[in-house]
Radical SAM protein
Amino acid sequence: MAPALTHAAYEACELCPRRCGARRSAGRPGRCGMSSELRIARSALHLWEEPPISGEAGSGAIFFSGCPLRCVFCQNHEISSEGFGLPVTTARLAEMMLELQGQGALNINLVTPLHFAPHIRDAVAMAREAGLALPIVCNTSGYELAEVVRSLAGVVDVWLTDFKYASGTLAGELSAAPDYPEVAAEALAAMAESVRAAGGRSLAEDDSLRRGIIVRHLVLPTHADDSCAVLDRVWSLVGNDADLSVMNQYTPNEACRRSGGALSRAVTDEEYEIVLCHADDLGFERIWWQEGGTVSESFVPAFDATGVEGPELTCPPGSQAL
């Protein structure tokens, strides 16, 4: 049964697949590293997403602190595991969305947000009432509970979701989540169900995505076989109901470089071509890929609290600042 996305969910948290039961409302961090205090690291236009998301104007990206996964190769470790970010109210989050709309953003792109799902639901409702007209993009690792995904039907318009692994062994080794393949599959099926119920994939006149799914997969060095198995799984679940983004931008972080192991190098052209060719053979009609030279930490934005601080939004009638 889908949970009620009220702030009571933080009292014994089961918002993510860890189901850690942390008393986040009492200030105790869950496996995501966060209490119930909403924390955000950056709010700004972002030009480095897939073309239907960023377009020419940019996506209005809001980066949330914390993450239920612990990927050894994470590029966003400052916010995912080190907790950087400023505390904000739900009303301030709603105001950030409106500010990004005013800057010309194509959408509101919520990056790793669902361990704060009750805040998300409330902030979007508040922003809609105050004039937000942009699609809401949920930019997720894919490690989400299907029931939480279903609870956000009518809130999220575009699912920009990773599908990282087909092997539970690999998922356990690299992200401390051996259940990742099954969890991600159930979540993706729920995303597809939600989009179909809303009328299916939809584009704006400028070809930006207003409703739909983009499944991302980052190819990892020495693991092209698992990447191909991931594409098999995605194809069996959603076929061409989703766009597919195959990424070659894996960049070893400092820990991976020091290890000297398989993850200490970039993906080779041959590894990437194997995965792209497999995607084509399966029949994916909308495939986004990256040209050479994308291996760079410059793809990681500066987590410096840009756009986070500002005056509080005046709550619309009948609403409450949280």
Observations:
- The first strand starts at residue 39 and ends at 46.
- The chain has a mean pLDDT of 92.
- The radius of gyration is 19 Å.
- Residues 180-197 form the longest helix (18 residues).
